[in-house]
Amino acid sequence: MATSMTETFTAAEPVDLLSKFDPIIQTRETLLAAGVEDPFNLVMEQVLSPTRAICNGRDTILLGTYNYMGMTFDPDVIEAGQKAMQEFGAGTTGSRVLNGTFRDHRDVETALREFYDMDHAMVFSTGYQANLGIISTLAGKGDYIILDIDSHASIYDGCAMGKAEVVPFKHNDVEALEKRLKRIPEGAGKLVVLEGVYSMMGDVAPLKEMVRIAKENGAMVLVDEAHSMGFIGEHGRGVAEEQGVLDDVDFIIGTFSKSVGTVGGFCVSNHPKFEVLRLVCRPYVFTAALPPSVMASSAVSIRKLMQGSNKRAHLWENSRTLHKGLRDLGFKLGTETPQSAIIAVIMPDLERGAMMWEALLKEGLYVNLARPPATPAGMTLLRCSLCAEHTAEQVTTILGMFERAGKAIGII
Amino acid sequence: MTASEVDERIRTLIEPFNKKGVDIEDSTTFAGDLEFDSLTVMDFVAEIEDEFDVIISMNQQAEIENWGQLVAAVHKLQDS
Fold first, then answer.
1. Contact A167 B57 (CB under 8 A)
2. Distance of alpha carbon A390 from alpha carbon A51, whole angstroms
3. What's the gap in Å between the CA of B80 and the closest CA on chain A?
4. From the candidates A105, A120, A190, A258, which is the catalytic residue?
5. Which residues does A25 contact at the CB level (< 8 Å), separation at least 6?
């Protein structure tokens, strides 16, 4: 019977919805046909420490994670997570606004308020969702978002979700921001979205001037400090703190998946009406709350980061040593000076970038291979992100690996 | 400013971006015929915005595929 049923259908020519990705499939196949190990399919079989893992079978130094402060293996952070999992179970099985707020969700928000010395903190399941949720909820149809053209995908997706008018300006260009702000119709809601550290090149924004200009033009300001928390600014509150404008920033977005060493995202603010966002922000309401173990680990980690000045100093030392060493070897870098824990090495093209990436992996070094559309100006980058737990000897070893690989591939 | 005056001024602005010297008609597309990538679009849009003192949001840019649409949009924007 079943056979006769199917025979009655005359199949229309199906439209393959995946065929629009054919160019990407082609690029990837060309790359792999050249014999390179797949840069987007690396497996860490064992993680030995914040700076070492067994990757694709090799003992590898990790120089491409966002584990800036090395908190993933901190004994107190691990112990707190284990204890919370024992006491509260493996997961929350529910939204923050229903059954998903446990003791430690509240505690991690308290830890964030202490860390930033701010009145309100709201924790999301990831940093992506924090940007998606806060931006889309703040700026809706008829409002204007003025943002740096090199903003992270989560910022752009938040803009699209909220349906605001999106006005980009040239990367880190203060004058371009000001011109656009002045052209926005009078009376319209305005949100200026900036990042402290831009993660592709590792450069820092001129927040001092930009925040002032935004305020002079009646805009609210949101700054994503994902790549600065814990080691930039006197208290590790980020670039806005370092440049003395934190009090004028309306919303700070951050993440637990970098310096904090766990997973999750957040927004902190002094806005008196901030708490209403818990009721109206869809990426907060319509998703499951993070597991209690993650919350307990995060709370301990955030409080330890408040006392992390020695580790911060060592991280900066690593960043300066690697930046100078790579420049002396003749590599082209994303910034003239070391501005953050990210050092971007500019590759001549994707092909040689992938070859260099593979040569480094075989040397026993993992870095991030970044390419368009994630990168600005169609560049291929090898992004190095340092950890406070990298020893001075490891940095020297890393420079030796870069020298051998760079010469073998013909980049230096 | 009339639509033809707008057309003329944008034609001057596009010259440095039109590297292959493509003949521009109303139906000339930016992504296809002129092969503009996102960075070129940003720089070109910024030039127009500064010249006419207007904002062309990304939402509006998404609706503009060819030259005729661009001229019409800028003409409308600088009128309002």
1. yes
2. 6
3. 11
4. A258
5. none
The complex scores an ipTM of: 0.93
Buried/exposed code over A247-285 (b: 16+ C-beta within 10 A; e: otherwise)? eebbbbbbbbbbbbbbbbbbbbbbbeebeebeeebebbe
- Does the pTM surpass 0.80? The reply is yes
Residue A385 pairs in a beta bridge with A64, A342
A323: contact with B, CB 8 A cutoff: no
d(CA A151, CA A139): 16
Strand A368-370 and strand A380-385: the pairing is: antiparallel
CB spacing of A180 vs B49 below 8 angstroms? yes
Residues of B with CB below 8 A from A157's CB? none
Query: A377: closest CA among A347, A398, A405, A397?
Result: A347
User: Which of A168, A373, A376 has the CB atom closest to B58's CB atom?
Assistant: A168
Is the Cα dihedral A156, A158, A161, A167 positive or negative?
A: negative
SS3 content of chain A, % helix, strand, coil (to 5): 45, 20, 35
Positive or negative: CA dihedral A295, A298, A302, A303: positive
Q: Does residue A258 have an active-site annotation?
A: yes
Annotated catalytic residue: which of A227, A304, A314, A390? A227
Residue A170 contacts B, CB cutoff 8 Å: yes
Residue A54 host element (H or E): strand A52-55
How does pLDDT run along chain A (412 residues), one tens digit per residue? 455 555 566 778 889 999 999 999 998 898 888 888 888 889 999 999 999 999 989 999 999 999 999 999 999 999 999 999 999 999 999 999 999 999 999 999 999 999 999 999 999 999 999 999 999 999 999 999 999 999 999 999 999 999 999 999 999 999 999 999 999 999 999 999 999 999 999 999 999 999 999 999 999 999 999 999 999 999 999 999 999 999 999 999 999 999 999 999 999 999 999 999 999 999 999 999 999 999 999 999 999 999 988 899 999 999 999 999 999 999 999 999 999 999 999 999 988 999 999 999 999 999 999 988 788 888 999 999 999 999 999 999 999 999 999 999 999 9
- Picking from A119, A125, A86, the residue whose alpha carbon sits closest to that of residue A105 is A125
For residue A202, which phi and psi values (nearest 5 degrees)?
A: 75, 20
Rg of the Cα atoms in chain A: 23
Q: Mind telling me how many Å the CA of B77 is from chain A's nearest CA? A: 12
Q: Which of A151, A199, A293, A340 is catalytic?
A: A199
Clarify whether A227 is annotated catalytic.
yes
What whole-number distance in Å separates Cα of residue A228 and Cα of residue A91?
29
CB contact under 8 A, A166 and B59: yes
């997570």: which residue's tokens?
Answer: A81
- A412–chain B Cβ distance below 8 A for any pair: no
